[in-house]
Amino acid sequence: MHTPLCHHAVGEPTQYAAQAVKLGLPEIGFSEHSPMPRDDFDDWRMLQGDLKQYVEMVEKARRDHPRLKIRIALEVDYLPGHEEWIRELAARHPWDYLIGAVHYVSDSWDLDNPKKTSEWKQRDPFEVWTAYFERLTMATASGLFETIAHADLCKKFGYYPTQDCTPLFTRFLQTARQKGVALELNTAGLRKDCKEIYPSPQIVRLAAQMGVPITFASDAHAPEEVGLNFREAIELARSAGYTHCCHFARRQREEAKF
Asked: How far apart are CA 139 and CA 118, in angstroms?
C-alpha cells in the first residue's frame, strides 16, 4: 500500500488503516516506493528526504488505530548494480519487510509507465518478457527481499508473447523456492488493462507445486482500494492448492492459515 509521497497515490495512511478496520482486516502493511540514489531518477517515488515523514505518517496511523497491526516496509526497485544502495536503504529503519520489484527492463524504460507505452510498440513482447523475468530472477536471487511484487507486471498493458514463457516462470520460481522468497498475489492487476491478478493463474499453480510461499496485496493507491478483490485472490490461491499465506515482522516470516 502506498501514500501521497509517491506522487501517484491519494489519502493518508490513517485513512487506509480506517478502511482496513472497516473491512475487518487484522493486519496491514505500508510499502511505499523507495527512493533512488538520484531524486530525479523518475517522478513516481519517495524522495530521499521523505523517509522520515513516511515513518511518521505510518506511526500516526498506528496511534489512531491501536487494535490494527500495521507494518512498515518499502517496495524497492531492483536494478543490477544497485545492490549496495538497497542494503543502505534497508539499514535506515527497522523495516518489517522489503518487497523487491522490477519496473525497469533498462536504465530508462519502466515498462509499466503509461507515459511510455509507445516503447512496447517498438519491441518484441517475448524479448521484453525475457528481460523482465531475468531481472526478476536476479532480484529474487539477491537475498535482499522477503517478497516479490506483481511478478508478471509485464502483462499490464496486454502485450503478450506468442512464445511459451513457462521456462522463464520456472527459473524465477525455482529461485524463489531456493531463497525462501514469497510471491505476492496482487489484486491491482484487475484494475489494469490486463484485467487479471498478478501473477497469472499459471504462475500461481507452478508456485504452489514448487512450494513457494505467498502473500496477499491490494497494492492500494487510495483508501478505497485497501483489500479490494481479496476474495478473488484467496479463491485463486486455494484453487492452486494453497492453504497458508505468510506475513512479516522485523523481516522475520510467519505463516498463517487463510
From this structure: 26
